[in-house]
Every structure is written in C-alpha cells, then in structure tokens.
Design a protein that fits this description.
Shape: globular
Structural class: alpha+beta
Radius of gyration: 11 Å
Strand order of the largest sheet: 2-1-3
Distance between the termini: 11 Å
Largest sheet: 3 strands, antiparallel
CATH architecture: 2-Layer Sandwich
Length: 60
C-alpha cells in the first residue's frame, strides 16, 4: 500500500472541536510537523476534511 506524507502548514487555532479531533487522529500537533500514514480511505477522508490546513505528498 502507498504511503503519504502529511504536513501541517496552517495553525489549528480557531477550528472546531471536530476538526481538532481529526488533527489529533492524524497525529498533528504543531506547525510544520510531518507525519506518514498509509493511503487508506479513512485517512484520505480525514485529509479531505482538513485540506485547508495541511499539504499531502506521496512517498515513494
């Protein structure tokens, strides 16, 4: 399965509780923090919800 690299590029100040829970589930706590996850439908759904705060790259 493919891996993706997720980077938080904008602050999470002022987002809703549900969005904060998604950020925590992705493992993101700080600006410019990078995490790697498998490219699963569940992760991609979270990424779609948070696309205004993160960037996503495919890892080879």
């Amino acid at each position: 399965m493919a891996k993706i690299k997720i980077t938080q590029v904008r602050s999470s100040i002022g987002i809703t509780k549900q969005q904060k829970a998604i950020m925590a589930a992705l493992g993101l706590r700080k600006m410019n923090q990078v995490v790697e996850h498998e490219d699963t439908p569940q992760i991609m759904g979270m990424v779609r919800k948070m696309q205004h705060l993160i960037t996503v790259e495919e890892v080879k």
